[in-house]
Amino acid sequence: MLVLGIETTCDETAAAVVVDGIRVRSNVVSSQVDLHARYRGVVPEIASRAHIENILPVVTESLQSAGVTMGEIDAVAVAHRPGLIGSLLIGVTAAKTLAWALGKPLIGVDHVHAHLYSVRLETDAQIPLPAVGLVCSGGHTALYRIGDFLDVQLIGSTLDDAVGEAYDKVAAILGLGYPGGPIIDGLAREGNPAAIRFPRSRLSRESLDFSFSGLKTSVLYHVRGYQGREEMKLTSAEIRDVAASFQAACVDVLGEKIRRAVEQCSARSVVIGGGVSANSGLRSAMEKFSLPVFFPEMKYCTDNAAMIAGLADLLLSNGRRSPLDLDAITYSQFSHAAN
Ligand code: KG4
Ligand code: ZN
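A: This is the predicted complex of the input protein with KG4.
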C-alpha cells in the first residue's frame, strides 16, 4: 500500500510517500527555520503563510521523487492534531482536497503518536511490548505506555516547558542561534558536564511528569546574575560548560522518568521520538539502559511526513479512516483537552 503523508503542524511543510507503513519512498521537508530564526521561535502567522506557499510544491516533489503519480496513491494521511491551528488547517485542507479529488481514503493522524511510530520506519526490528514511549520535542515532553502502536496511553507529561523548548530558550540566553537543540548538543560535547550542578526536577517519588522551567531559570541566573541586569560575560569555554551541564541535567531527568515508567508499566523496551531524540547525550546515556531502546533514524527525529504516512498505514489496515469533514485540533488525543 502506498500512502501519501502530509505534515504541517508547526513550522515544517512536509510530504512523504511510504510503502506498507515502513519503507520510505520519499521524504520531503521544507524547513522554515530561516523565517523564524530572528524571532528565536515560531511565529504562527508567518508559519501558516509559508505553509500555503510550500504545500503544493512539497507534495509534488514527494510524488516525483517517489516516482509515483497522484493516481497510484492508495490513501492520503495528514497530521491533524496537535499543533498551531493556522498551520494545521493548511495541511488538513490540502489532504481533504486530494482525498476527495482522488476518491481515496483520508486518515487523520496524531502528530505525537506518529513521533513514537517513527522508530518503525525503515527497519524490520521487532519492538518488545509493552514499551514505554517518550516523545521529547519542541512542543511536547510526555511518556506513554505502548501496548501496541494502536494502543497508546499517556502516563506523564510536562507541567511547564517542553525539553526542546528549554533547549531553545537556553540557547537564546547564551546568545546562540535557533533552533538551539542541535547547537547546544554540539557545544555540550566539548564542555564539562560536571562544571555546574544545575537542578534536576524529579517531582514526587512516583511522578512521571516533567518540569523544565526551574532548570531554565537556573541557567538564566547563572549566566545573567540574580539581578537579571548583568551582561553575559562568559568565555566560550564557560559557554561550553553551561551547555554540557544543562544537557546533563536534561538527560538525567529524562532517564530517571523513563526508569520510573518502565518499572510502573513492567515494560519490555523503550521507544524515544521527537526532535530531542536526536540528542547525542540522550542517545549515549540510553546505550547503558537495562532494556532495548529504539530511536528513530536521525532524519525521522524532527518533524517529517514519513512518520505520518507510516502510522496512517497501520490505522488504515485496522479499518480506521477519517471523514472528509475531519477537523484540525490544537491538542493531542492523548493529552488533556485543557493542554
Ligand atoms: O519534533 P520537532 O521537530 O518539533 C516538535 O514537534 O516540537 O522538535 C524540534 C525540537 C527543537 O526544540 C529543537 O531544538 C530540538 O527539537 N532538537 C534538539 C536536537 N535536535 C533538535 N534538542 C536537543 N538536541 C538535539 N540534537
Ligand atoms: Zn514534532
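The chain has a mean pLDDT of 95. The chain has two domains: 2-117+300-317, 129-296.
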